[in-house]
Amino acid sequence: MFQLVLFVVGVVGIGWLIGATNPPGEWYAGLAKPGFVPPNWAFPVAWTILYTLIAIAGWRTFRRDPRGKAMLAWAAQMALNFAWSPVMFTMHQIGAALVILIALLGAIVTYIGLELSRDRLAAALFVPYAAWVAFAGVLNAAIWRLN
């Protein structure tokens, strides 16, 4: 149970830290955006829930096979996830951020595929994450196109 707490605190904590140190700011506020952008309050709520699900899935995988392919896919998606905000909001690289989201979705789908036959719950915990990242990719692409 201690490992589960470490996973949740680590993933949620790093996610919050990256969000706090790479805020959207005035630059993002000034961009043209499509009409389907969620309200600002939705992002921290959604990401807190998603990071908790990601952490639980990672913990389940780590307990079973800490050096396996699924754990590597989990680590890869975390690195890509944590890279997106600095690239988008600090470096202002909308196109590069979209490339990261596409790679991130690939890593998420890979993780789901690897876990589907081994740990259906871990795979299922990533489904809302995949949906959110797919939506984020569409949103990112629309912002890139509009700007």
Q: What is the gist of this entry?
A:
This protein has seven helices and no strands. It has 147 residues and is mostly helical. Helix 3 (42-64) runs antiparallel to helix 4 (69-90).
What does this protein structure show overall?
By secondary structure, the chain is mainly α. The protein is 81% helix and 0% strand. It contains seven helices and no strands. Helix 1 (2-21) runs antiparallel to helix 3, helix 4 runs antiparallel to helix 5 (94-116) and helix 5 runs antiparallel to helix 7. The longest helix has 23 residues, at 42-64. The radius of gyration is 15 Å and the shape is globular. The protein starts with a helix and ends with a helix.
> How confident overall, as mean pLDDT?
97
State the oligomer: single chain
Strand content: under 5%
Classify the helix fraction into a percent range.
Answer: over 70%
Element pattern in H and E:
HHHHHHH
Number of strands: 0
Q: What separation lies between the terminal Cα atoms?
A: 47 Å
Can you tell me the overall shape? globular
Helix and strand composition category: mainly alpha
Q: Rg from C-alpha positions?
A: 15 Å
Q: Count of helices?
A: 7
Report the sheet with the most strands, covering strand number, pairing sense and barrel closure.
Answer: none
Low-pLDDT runs of 5+ residues are none
Layout of helices and strands:
Elements: H1 2-21, H2 25-29, H3 42-64, H4 69-90, H5 94-116, H6 120-125, H7 127-146
Attribute tags:
globular, 147 residues, mainly alpha, 81% helix
